[in-house]
Design a protein that fits this description.
Layout (H helix, E strand, L loop, with lengths): L4 E6 L1 H10 L3 H8 L7 E6 H16 L6 H16 L4 H4 L1
Antiparallel strand pairs: 1-2
Helix pairs in contact: 3-4
């Protein structure tokens, strides 16, 4: 697997879901360092994208998360994991 970085654009409600439901330190560090804007872009390795998608799936399946944002973001991150395209325009 390559070490290519994927640029992931996130909306405020998606950032809140990630901060609550993922344990990935890279995500937390990058989101904490960003000002509160409408769209924030973070960079993650392909492996980190895969792990974050897994964290959200775990939150849904094992932890009983029923937040619509988490469902949507989980699907979106699966798409990003498959395609490498983290832009909002690719999904919405």
């Amino acid at each position: 697997m390559s070490s290519r970085k994927i640029r992931l654009e996130l909306l405020p409600h998606e950032r809140a879901a990630l901060l609550r439901w993922t344990m990935n330190i890279e995500v937390h560090d990058q989101l904490a360092a960003r000002p509160d804007q409408d769209v924030v872009t973070i960079s993650l390795s392909e492996v980190d994208v895969h792990w974050v998608a897994g964290d959200l799936t775990h939150a849904i399946v094992k932890l009983g998360c029923r937040e619509e944002t988490v469902f949507d973001l989980s699907e979106r991150l699966d798409y990003v994991d498959d395609t490498g395209d983290g832009s909002l325009s690719a999904w919405y």
